[in-house]
Design goal:
CATH class of the largest domain: Mainly Alpha
Number of strands: 3
Radius of gyration: 29 Å
Number of domains: 3
Structural class: mainly alpha
Strand order of the largest sheet: 2-1-3
Largest sheet: 3 strands, antiparallel
Strand content: under 5%
């Protein structure tokens, strides 16, 4: 599909050179009119010369690049540095070149190179970012697009960096609260496997040596050990098969997504953590987008794409429909009381009345982040002793069974 370059005037009166893909010049003009852009020049861009094609070959991704994960922290550092360079008066292309030279991660360096070549070729920065959705999500692209349209790109880049840093810190907080329970669960599985698979089979001949009848707990332990020794391949194959089948059914049966995601929010202990994390993500990102100059309706669409919970996505769809009809944002949020607590609706209503919706949403995000901290600490406080009791109970039962068997040998 041909690429057309065009010049447009932004809200600040600055001229911007961007590009768009279209079937022909007429199609390109129609697309630009639909975007309500003031176009002063539209022409087909020349085909990419052989020299630039060779340059792009240098940035071709290898199989190792596809396996490399770019963290949100690394993306935040990229935007932080880019903001500093652009604010200092360095052009966007030169700033990207500097960051490309400084980057040590191969995949990130190639991505920056692709973006630089696209911008040099006339593409808007947001369009260049959009070509790498696995790294730059719709929130980042939407904010950059708004920054380019308003002529405040340097400010928006700083805001993007701050948003990504907050997101990284938020995720780190959730992960940190989950590390200890996961380690204890792994320890439980490891201890049970070791006892049943290695310790008990070596003690079993000693217990059976005298031929006396063993206590029920010792016999149960030996039976379980013998069964595991014979059928362990089938056991692990069955577990893996059930997990794989569950995953396939979940992926194929779309209605299950909604009910499973809704069930997650209703779970004891874990449910409040998941729900409050979604509330923080919704209010924080919506605040950032609205503050960046993006309309409420567009901001809702972007936030909807970021949130993964299907039940919450459906609620945001309903909110979008009500806002599209001309209703205030607080009304559908208040109606979705099973997701958003009354405080969020009240803060949104105050923000709409005072004309400071972004500030009210930010305050709501701060409040619920503190509530989330409380729930994470409560979850950790409940899960830790529970897992320790389970682990102690398993080890205690094994010790009791073995000691009972040994005492039976001596007719005690």
């Amino acid at each position: 599909m041909p690429v057309y370059s065009y010049k447009t005037i932004d809200a600040a009166g600055n001229e911007l050179t961007e590009s768009i893909e279209a079937h022909d010049k007429k199609d390109a003009a129609q697309k630009l009119r639909a975007q309500r852009k003031v176009v002063i020049l539209l022409e087909e861009r020349a085909r990419i010369p052989a020299e630039e094609t060779e340059k792009r070959e240098l940035y071709k991704f290898s199989i190792f690049d596809h396996l490399t994960h770019i963290s949100s922290g690394a993306i935040a550092v990229f935007f932080r540095k880019l903001s500093a360079l652009v604010t200092s008066g360095v052009t966007l292309v030169n700033s990207l070149y500097v960051l490309e030279e400084q980057e040590t991660v191969g995949k990130m360096r190639k991505i920056i190179g692709h973006i630089r070549l696209d911008v040099e070729g006339g593409s808007a920065f947001a369009v260049a970012l959009k070509r790498h959705p696995q790294v730059f999500d719709s929130l980042i692209v939407g904010m950059v697009e708004a920054g380019e349209a308003s002529g405040m790109l340097s400010d928006i880049l700083e805001r993007v960096a701050r948003s990504l840093e907050q997101r990284a810190a938020f995720r780190s907080k959730i992960i940190t609260g989950s590390i200890y329970p996961i380690i204890v669960i792994i320890a439980v599985v490891g201890v049970v496997t070791f006892l049943v698979g290695f310790v008990i089979p070596r003690i079993a001949p000693l217990l059976k040596m005298r031929g006396t009848r063993l206590p029920w707990n010792t016999q149960f332990l030996l039976n379980m050990s013998n069964w595991f020794k014979v059928y362990w391949p089938q056991f692990f194959a069955s577990v893996m098969g059930i997990l794989a089948l569950t995953y396939i059914v979940y992926k194929l049966v779309k209605p299950l997504h909604y009910w499973v995601d809704r069930l997650k929010l209703k779970l004891p202990v874990i449910g409040p953590v998941l729900l409050n994390s979604i509330i923080v993500e919704f209010t924080r990102n919506l605040s950032i987008l609205i503050k960046s100059g993006i309309t409420v309706l567009e901001s809702l669409g972007i936030v909807r794409n970021i949130i993964r919970n299907r039940a919450v996505k459906d609620v945001i769809d309903t909110i979008e429909t009500h806002v599209l009809r001309g209703e205030s944002l607080s009304i559908p949020i208040k109606a979705a009381g099973h997701i958003f607590p009354p405080m969020v609706a009240s803060m949104v209503a105050v923000g709409e009345e005072t004309g400071s919706l972004d500030t009210s949403l930010a305050v709501a995000a701060d409040i619920h982040e503190k509530i989330l901290d409380t729930y994470v600490k409560r979850m950790t406080a409940l899960v830790e002793p529970l897992l320790i009791v389970v682990l102690g109970g398993i080890v205690g039962f094994v010790a009791w069974a073995l000691i009972s068997g040994i005492l039976t040998m001596y007719h005690v």
